[in-house]
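Worked example 2:
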Amino acid sequence: MSRVLGGRVDPANADQAKAWDGGEGAYWADHAERFDRTMAAYHGSFMEAAAITASDRVLDIGCGTGQTTHDAARAATAGSALGIDLSSRMIERARQLAAAEQLHNITYEQADAQVHPFTPSGFDVAISRTGAMFFGDPIAAFDNIARSLRPGGRLVLLTWQGPRENEWIRELSGALAAGRAARVPPRDAPGPFALSDPDRVRTILTASGFADIGIDGAAENMWFGHDADDAHRFVLGLMGWMLEGLDDAARAQAAEHLRATLAAHVTADGVVYGSATWTVHASRA
């Protein structure tokens, strides 16, 4: 069984652990500020929805390099924030940033939220900014998260709406597909769109012991680079796995298709694409 510093990984999450605690997670850690900038249009409203108070004990699920955990800790001045993620590199980067900012009410653990032995009723709020869509068994995961919350404790998630509403994934994956069908994970599989169907979200959370479920939509632009060349380097590093199996000519064609769509999306603010999210809020029954 795969191991992480905070405990075990559920076998259903083994592929996710391999990716996030491998090259994918390392790339996110090395480009932390850039990834935070891609989500900047949503970050403020997400933290407002979390409504963290001074005494709250906060669990940040899939915390990445810790921007949301840091903001939670700043709000919970008399409380605490625990950030967990499968990626050792992102956790390491988050710890470095917390130390640099002298945030002393933060703890980070490399752990699988689906099976980690959280203290029962140990948190007042659980949050996740685009990190809760990758569970192999979402009902088991949210069961475990619910147990970690006190009765009446709150859950706030930011998740993607579907591919149709997210221009960035359609355009970027379409360019890199090089004439093949774009490799977008199905909505019932771990991936960015696993919680894109509000009815599925309500079913999962209800089965996991949550109530008062609300889902609010938003649409914002996402930033991918200062110019087409800058964005080209970034996106190839992020999504270059889509070129696997292509010969040299097809790879070159895909790279040029990518450059063309990026150039078409250059604005005065850089390279931007349309996107859409759901903010999900619920409470432990």
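The chain has a mean pLDDT of 93. The chain has eleven helices and ten strands.
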